[in-house]
Amino acid sequence: MIPAPLGMLAELTHACPLHCPYCSNPVALAPRDSELSTQEWDRVFGEAAALGVVQAHLSGGEPLLRRDLDELVASCGRHGLYTNLITSGLGLDADRLARLPVDHVQISVQDATERASDDIAGTRSWARKITAARVVKDAGRPLTLNVVLHRANVDHVGAVIALAGELGADRLELAHTQYYGWALRNRAWLMPSMEQVLATAEVVRAARTRMEISYVLPDLHTGTPKPCTGGWGRTQLTVAPGGEVRPCAAADSLPLEFANVRDRSLDWIWYSSPSFNRFRGTDWMPDPCRSCALKDVDLGGCRCQAFQLTGDPGATDPVCRLSPDRHLVDAALAGPPQTAPFPRPHAPKGPSS
Ligand code: SF4
Ligand code: FES
């Protein structure tokens, strides 16, 4: 029995004004002229709602760079979808927000201070982000502040929590870097030490009595695989800017063929496509997962991580302490030069048109 999906990540574009080294977008970004049109997205939102999706997360890249974003948000509303705008905040002023009847806004900052945040974003953006956050609150909309954590900012989590309080954020999302796309290239620069991770967890634990904070210990450090995206093809789907549909945003790197909404219905893709069925359930699992009591809890961990580290998307997630490939993770954890200053190694420059 395959459950209906609950959430859809709609990657409206890979274009973005920021150049974050932890970006999980593909290293080969989708060109702008390959993006789904307004009409195509309208059909996709309708098919998603019919399939059972209740939440549409409008993301990118930077979704505000879509000139038709007003129409896309209106389309979501017509189809009864709850809309969450995931944005850098650049380009979001009171006039633009008034034309976007989204239910929720998530704004990212890269650190707790202007200089550090702009350094990581690779562009001057802090002031506009803070203004955008205030605009959202002034308009009475729910706001989540999002910060991706890595070695250069993880020690500033106390200041980030204070910033979220000052902005009146309803929720703070502290997300450790996931090593896909650009972030995988830059892993040696981004990976925090075990000491940093443990200290951060303590700061977060103390602050949770005052604020809603979403924070999960990084799987690489704990040795506990995450039930990635709630399980392969179980609750979420991602539609890429060019229309390819995948169980997660990072799956473009996998040696699987993903169907496109230009050729197939979302219903067929979800229920019948070989790629969505490839890692559903537990029958595909190798040992030690196959005979493990936790296989219904972590649902096999992360397929993208397994592929990136072992070359086999069907391997046991090497994060797991029972995996025969765990030494690959231990080597990555031991690798980073913990005292090096934060460099700007590789970062997305935006797709071509
Ligand atoms: Fe998000 Fe930064 Fe990547 Fe833009 S460059 S998509 S803000 S992570
Ligand atoms: Fe793709 Fe985890 S990111 S399965």
UniProtKB/TrEMBL annotation:
<dbReference type="InterPro" id="IPR017200">
    <property type="entry name" value="PqqE-like"/>
</dbReference>
<dbReference type="InterPro" id="IPR011843">
    <property type="entry name" value="PQQ_synth_PqqE_bac"/>
</dbReference>
<dbReference type="InterPro" id="IPR013785">
    <property type="entry name" value="Aldolase_TIM"/>
</dbReference>
<keyword id="KW-0479">Metal-binding</keyword>
<feature type="domain" description="Radical SAM core">
    <location>
        <begin position="2"/>
        <end position="216"/>
    </location>
</feature>
<feature type="binding site">
    <location>
        <position position="23"/>
    </location>
    <ligand>
        <name>[4Fe-4S] cluster</name>
    </ligand>
</feature>
<keyword id="KW-0408">Iron</keyword>
<dbReference type="InterPro" id="IPR050377">
    <property type="entry name" value="Radical_SAM_PqqE_MftC-like"/>
</dbReference>
<keyword id="KW-0560">Oxidoreductase</keyword>
<dbReference type="GO" id="GO:0005506">
    <property type="term" value="F:iron ion binding"/>
</dbReference>
<keyword id="KW-0004">4Fe-4S</keyword>
<comment type="subunit">
    <text>Interacts with PqqD. The interaction is necessary for activity of PqqE.</text>
</comment>
<dbReference type="GO" id="GO:0051539">
    <property type="term" value="F:4 iron, 4 sulfur cluster binding"/>
</dbReference>
<dbReference type="GO" id="GO:0018189">
    <property type="term" value="P:pyrroloquinoline quinone biosynthetic process"/>
</dbReference>
<feature type="binding site">
    <location>
        <position position="20"/>
    </location>
    <ligand>
        <name>[4Fe-4S] cluster</name>
    </ligand>
</feature>
<keyword id="KW-0949">S-adenosyl-L-methionine</keyword>
<dbReference type="InterPro" id="IPR058240">
    <property type="entry name" value="rSAM_sf"/>
</dbReference>
<feature type="region of interest" description="Disordered">
    <location>
        <begin position="332"/>
        <end position="353"/>
    </location>
</feature>
<dbReference type="GO" id="GO:0016491">
    <property type="term" value="F:oxidoreductase activity"/>
</dbReference>
<dbReference type="GO" id="GO:1904047">
    <property type="term" value="F:S-adenosyl-L-methionine binding"/>
</dbReference>
<keyword id="KW-0411">Iron-sulfur</keyword>
<comment type="pathway">
    <text>Cofactor biosynthesis; pyrroloquinoline quinone biosynthesis.</text>
</comment>
<feature type="binding site">
    <location>
        <position position="16"/>
    </location>
    <ligand>
        <name>[4Fe-4S] cluster</name>
    </ligand>
</feature>
<dbReference type="Pfam" id="PF04055">
    <property type="entry name" value="Radical_SAM"/>
</dbReference>
<dbReference type="Pfam" id="PF13186">
    <property type="entry name" value="SPASM"/>
</dbReference>
<comment type="function">
    <text>Catalyzes the cross-linking of a glutamate residue and a tyrosine residue in the PqqA protein as part of the biosynthesis of pyrroloquinoline quinone (PQQ).</text>
</comment>
<keyword id="KW-0884">PQQ biosynthesis</keyword>
<dbReference type="InterPro" id="IPR023885">
    <property type="entry name" value="4Fe4S-binding_SPASM_dom"/>
</dbReference>
<protein>
    <recommendedName>
        <fullName>PqqA peptide cyclase</fullName>
        <ecNumber>1.21.98.4</ecNumber>
    </recommendedName>
</protein>
<dbReference type="GO" id="GO:0009975">
    <property type="term" value="F:cyclase activity"/>
</dbReference>
<comment type="similarity">
    <text>Belongs to the radical SAM superfamily. PqqE family.</text>
</comment>
<dbReference type="InterPro" id="IPR007197">
    <property type="entry name" value="rSAM"/>
</dbReference>
